[in-house]
Amino acid sequence: MRFSDKRVIVTGAANGLGAAIARQFAAEGSIVAIADIDEKGAAATAAAIVEVGGRATAYRLDVTDPQGWDDLVRSLSKNCGGIDILVNNAAIASGLVRIEDRTPQDWDRSMAINAKGPFLGTRAVLPVFRANGGGTIVNVSSVAGLGQSQIMDPAYACSKAALTMLTHITAAQHAAEGVRCNSVHPGPVDSKLARSAYAQPSAFDKRISRVPAGRLAQVFEVVNAVLYLASDDSSYITGAGLPVDGGALVQ
Ligand SMILES: NC(=O)c1ccc[n+]([C@@H]2O[C@H](COP(=O)([O-])OP(=O)(O)OC[C@H]3O[C@@H](n4cnc5c(N)ncnc54)[C@H](O)[C@@H]3O)[C@@H](O)[C@H]2O)c1
């Protein structure tokens, strides 16, 4: 198995893509920490994994809380002897509005969860990675972090753009320590988040018209990309951003 006994943190794993990523890591042999602010959802994801013979534990984590990260890393180091992989997946998406309609509070919240959260996670795991001789980080970003600017919410897109640069900096500054860091950039995924964002048929059609493949991504297609970048199959790839977008960014 690709991830036999690998110790993995997946943030935002109570729901959606994060839960699917966590399930796949567990199916491939990992010991998974389901870290989410949604305690009930995290417990349900962990229970579903354990029920089918996998290994997972739920942790309450607000990714914006530095102390929460320190506690999580300390507890995993104690219980599992270390951490091998961090997937920074937790994020919030805000509806598309013009810059002048986006409040400063919305901006701060998006930046805190989507950009500062992955920064705090990276900062917390690096000493453990160093002590273990290396580790891998996958940041779940978005096409919004790279382009399609005409149809993106300013707060969400700028938070994901910050995550792109965090990926580059982590990769460049820590490669010599055996740390790899890459990002995945999904276009719209067949998920609760996308279904509510594009609930109106006209909004859905408009969004899909910007995707050459003409359809939403399926969750497994994003999961496969995350696990590829977390695995040794991508051992010489670091600092890369992998679009999973049906061609949206090359339109
Ligand atoms: N769904 C899409 O169409 C799509 C497209 C591109 C990128 N993405 C990215 O994929 C990732 C997952 O998206 P999703 O569709 O599964 O979203 P989702 O809303 O279903 O799940 C997000 C999870 O993050 C958690 N979370 C939110 N704030 C948190 C905090 N402060 N601390 C800890 N956990 C917190 C939520 O509780 C939830 O479990 C996000 O990074 C998102 O930006 C999604």
3D architecture notes:
- This protein is α/β, with parallel strands linked by helices.
- The protein has one domain (7-245): NAD(P)-binding Rossmann-like Domain (Rossmann fold, 3-Layer(aba) Sandwich), CATH 3.40.50.
- The protein contains eight helices and seven strands; from the N terminus they run βαβαβαβαβαβαααβ.
- It has a seven-stranded parallel β-sheet with strand order 3-2-1-4-5-6-7, with helices on both faces.
- α1 (16-27) links the parallel β1 and β2 (31-36).
- α1 (16-27) packs across α8 (219-230).
- The longest helix has 29 residues, at 104-132.
- The model has no long low-confidence stretch (mean pLDDT 95).
- Bound molecules: nicotinamide-adenine-dinucleotide (NAD).
- Residues 11-12, 14-18, 36-38, 41, 61-64, 89-93, 113, 140, 142, 186, 188-189, 191-194 line the site of nicotinamide-adenine-dinucleotide (NAD).
Sequence-ordered SSE layout with sheet pairings:
Layout: E1 7-11, H1 16-27, E2 31-36, H2 39-51, E3 55-60, H3 66-80, E4 85-88, H4 104-132, E5 135-140, H5 154-174, E6 179-186, H6 192-197, H7 201-208, H8 219-230, E7 241-244
Parallel strand pairs: 1-2, 1-4, 2-3, 4-5, 5-6, 6-7
Bound molecules: nicotinamide-adenine-dinucleotide (NAD).
Nicotinamide-adenine-dinucleotide binds at residues 11-12, 14-18, 36-38, 41, 61-64, 89-93, 113, 140, 142, 186, 188-189, 191-194.
Give a nutshell description of this structure.
46% of the residues lie in helices and 16% in strands. It is an alpha/beta fold.
